[in-house]
């Protein structure tokens, strides 16, 4: 997929609550097998455990020229030498994160299914905007990010867009022409063989 022009890149999200001691080998295997463009660390966990995961992820990802962002924790991103943050509250916090991390840092943000929030985030200086969930899930507010939101964004807005949340092979096929990145995380880590599952999703 990523060898073709105008197709999205893979944006990988590490498993929520993963212990650094067990994450390393699995993460390295996935990143050796698939061309990951960006790695995101969920923000849940203690400061100490998140710090260990941040150091581990940075070491593995940077060795493969892959950027690493962490959800919401600006200070942890600075302290552990990460490439930036992924904010989970829309446009709020974009300017603050940019001020703290500098112009070279990655500042992305999740905007649910809101075109308005996405536009505000882009105007505030976000490097990318993420919409989701794209598939049916009981998590969150239950509002899905529809295909036409991505179609409109890709035609009207220059800021890259990420599709995430409950993705299936069929949804990825539909979204591929109108997204810059496909974010996968729980879809693979919840399965017995994450590498095989990712292979089935990412063709």
Automatic annotation (TrEMBL):
Keyword RNA-binding: no
Biological process according to GO: thiamine biosynthetic process
Keywords from the named record: Thiamine biosynthesis
Biological pathway: Cofactor biosynthesis; thiamine diphosphate biosynthesis
Superkingdom to which the source organism belongs: Bacteria
Ranges of residues in domain Thiamine phosphate synthase/TenI: 10-176
Alphabetical list of InterPro entries matching this protein: Aldolase_TIM (IPR013785), ThiamineP_synth_sf (IPR036206), ThiamineP_synth_TenI (IPR022998)
GO cellular component, one term: cytoplasm
GO terms for MF: thiamine-phosphate diphosphorylase activity
Protein's UniProt name: Thiamine phosphate synthase
Organism: Paracoccus kondratievae
């Amino acid at each position: 997929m990523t060898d073709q022009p105008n197709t999205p890149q893979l944006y990988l999200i590490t498993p929520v609550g993963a212990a650094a001691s067990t994450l390393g080998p699995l993460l390295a295997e996935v990143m050796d097998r698939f061309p990951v463009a960006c790695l995101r660390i969920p923000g849940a966990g203690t400061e100490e455990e998140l710090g260990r995961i941040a150091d581990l992820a940075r070491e593995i990802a940077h060795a493969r020229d892959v950027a690493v962002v962490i959800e919401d924790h600006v200070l942890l991103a600075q302290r552990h030498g990460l490439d930036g943050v992924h904010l989970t509250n829309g446009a709020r916090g974009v300017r603050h994160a940019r001020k703290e991390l500098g112009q070279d840092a990655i500042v992305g943000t999740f905007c649910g299914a809101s075109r308005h929030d996405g536009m505000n985030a882009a105007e505030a200086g976000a490097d990318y905007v993420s919409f989701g969930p794209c598939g049916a899930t009981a998590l969150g507010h239950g509002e899905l990010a529809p295909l036409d939101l991505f179609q409109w964004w890709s035609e009207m807005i220059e800021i890259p867009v990420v599709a995430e949340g409950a993705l299936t092979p069929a949804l990825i096929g539909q979204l591929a022409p109108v997204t810059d990145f496909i974010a996968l995380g729980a879809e693979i880590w919840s399965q017995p063989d994450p590498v095989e599952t990712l292979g089935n999703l990412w063709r």
